[in-house]
Predict the structure.
Amino acid sequence: MSNDSIPPDWDTPATRADLRWWLDLAPTLRWTWAKTYADFAPHWYVRGGGTPGFTRDDSRRVGRVVRTFGEPGKFWKRTNLYLFTEDRARKFWCMFGEVPKPPGIVNLAHATRVYGPQTDFDEQRLTVLRLGGER
């Protein structure tokens, strides 16, 4: 993805209204089962511009929501941000890469599925990922 495709508000923190929008929209989407990861990291995903009712702009907005309201977590050694549903039964995450760029895919899994110790987070990575704003 070139820098030309990064929207001008990408580093602007999401608002509580953005968070509410996502928590209301997510249950209405048709989530795709990630078959290739079914045996070792079961989850679902939606693709911006590929999932009906979920545009590329929507996936970028979710990325900002996760970066603003997400909580640290790890997938083995890799520190990431996870956004939990209000009942904390499920979590959403994006694959941001080394430098956070707007995601094309948003993932969803049961919150009880964790991989490796959820301690000793990479604080430098969190500094890169996180946006300020209300938490």
Helices lie at 16-25, 56-69, 123-129. The chain has a mean pLDDT of 91. The longest strand covers residues 78-84. Strands lie at 32-33, 44-47, 71-75, 78-84, 90-94, 105-110.
